[in-house]
Amino acid sequence: MSDEPILISREDAVARVVLNRPKARNALNLPMCQALQSTFAELDADDRVRVIIVEGRGPVFCAGADLKERQGKDEAWIRRRRLAAFAAYEMIERCAKPVFAVADGPIVGSGGEIAMACDFIVVSPEASFRFPEPQWGTVGATQRLQRVVGKRRAKELLFTGRSMHAEEALGLGLVARLVPRQDLEATAAEIARSIAAAPMLAMRLTKQAIELGEETTLNSGIRIELAAIERCLADTEWRQGIEQFTKKVAT
Length: 251
Known about the structure:
CATH class of the largest domain: Alpha Beta
Number of domains: 2
Strand content: 15-25%
Radius of gyration: 19 Å
CATH superfamily of the largest domain: 2-enoyl-CoA Hydratase, Chain A, domain 1
Number of strands: 9
Largest sheet: 6 strands, mixed
Distance between the termini: 44 Å
Strand order of the largest sheet: 1-2-3-4-6-9
């Protein structure tokens, strides 16, 4: 197995991005930040890829920032390292293709940022979330977390640094699907195949419309959706979608 911090594999239209520092519980360090940026830039530009799965190698999705790499570093280095992490999260979030995270174990700190930068998260009951940044003497997860679970719950999770189990995360909307451990891999593969089989332009425009609509009013959001519909109508894939639907109904 390669010692690169990020592994990439492709099967048909599905790409898998694997956090590959299992001996360090996939803790996020500077090389992994840089590798995430370059990986998502590459996959976003690859027309063969229609959907991306993000997962961690080993029993831990990501144990958070690698605090060991900060030993002996000055404030300027720490600042540059944090900016690299923000750039990595943003590159995941801005990917035009659907991206989802799959986790079967702990998701801590920066691991939560990586997972929340994806479009949604699928986990087993063995997954858990923890955001201990204040306990580590730093600040993090203050923006994405509150947008997902709400301001007051985000404060409680950050202030206490407690572990949140998968069932609670599902109830808060942080997790999209909770499936038995033995079904996790098959469920992730089926989700990826389903997304990959859909018309690519419609999928891209759906993601774009949701992201843009979040930042504006309902009326402006409707106009964003109408513009996306017009782009779909200018393409032939919408006819293919209707044909596929008709075949399914017929069978």
